[in-house]
Design goal:
single chain; about 400 residues; mainly alpha; 3-stranded antiparallel beta sheet; 6 strands; flat
Amino acid sequence: MSDFTNELLRLSEMREKGLISQEEFEAAKARLFGNPEPPETENAGPPELPDPATVVMSMNPPEPPQAPPAASPPAASKEVPPGIAGWSWGAFLWNWIWAIFNNTWIGLLALIPGVNLVMIFVLGFKGREWAWKNKQWDSVEHFNRVQRKWSLWGIWLMLGGLLLAILLTFASFMFLGMAGSKISDNMDAYSIPASETNDGVTASTEPAPAAAEETATATDAATGEPAPALAEEAASAVDEDASTNEPVAADDTAEQDAVAEQERKHQEELEKTRAEAAAAKAEAARAKKEAMKAEKALAEQRRREREEEERLAREQAEQEQMQCPYSRSQPLTCSSRQGQPAICDWNFRACGNPRIAKKESKTTCDRKVEWDTENNQLIVTDGCRAQFIPVQ
């Protein structure tokens, strides 16, 4: 920006602030534009004397206002501005995680067992101050806004943990209650009720002690000792009860013996059934083993028969090969027609080398007969046709 523009801006600011009047502004602007004479007005009065302050300002013009420097983030220092210190729920609840994101590395001591119980409270009291000193922040408002978010998330974490603990405790009590009721039901199901016979015996024997007790407690009013008549009656009552209980006890013993005998017979039958089942199982296993053995013997016999048949067939084939089928009466005729070679079978092992017994072609067969001893073949060429027999 040029000096002219800066001067014009400065004059405008001075006019707005009331340091110069409108006429002084117009005069200064006219001087800037190269017209020292101020514009005439219709009712021009006598010229006004300039204000001494204005003259001084014109002689020493103030420097143009400069733009304020950009706000730079406060450097880390030991001074903590107001509004920073205080309790930090985020540092207390998130401890070492909060310390990593806020460059407060001393907070990693919360990872050590035992030390963490003390360190979380230290972070809660001093965490905000350490975070302000160890990390760059735009302003106090920015710092408080970030720490408020940490605190909110920490409180939500605490509430979520409490809710989860309550739910787990409730579920544990429900599970224990269900298990206890199930155990009680099982115990009730497996409990053995008292027998009716024992109840009858107990009921029959209870009145006797009661009667004896009542008789024994009766005393003579005059002497304070038991009356003889009452004692005799008590003794007779006890004897009657004993005589009455003897048949009941005998019946109970007979019934128990019958039950024991029945249980013994049942056990004997059960043992007998088990023995028969074991014997049947052993018999079935033995029969299965014998069947497998017989099947194996049959398979071995079939294999031997098959090997024997193969051996006989091989011997027969060898005999047939050793016996030559050709003779003077039954020669082998091999013919080459239209100049094409002819291939005829000849068993060199059984017949030996062949020879021409009779030539049937008009052309000679000299050097037109070839032997292939490996493949037992006789080859004639170039129109040779002859009968062949073994060499004698």
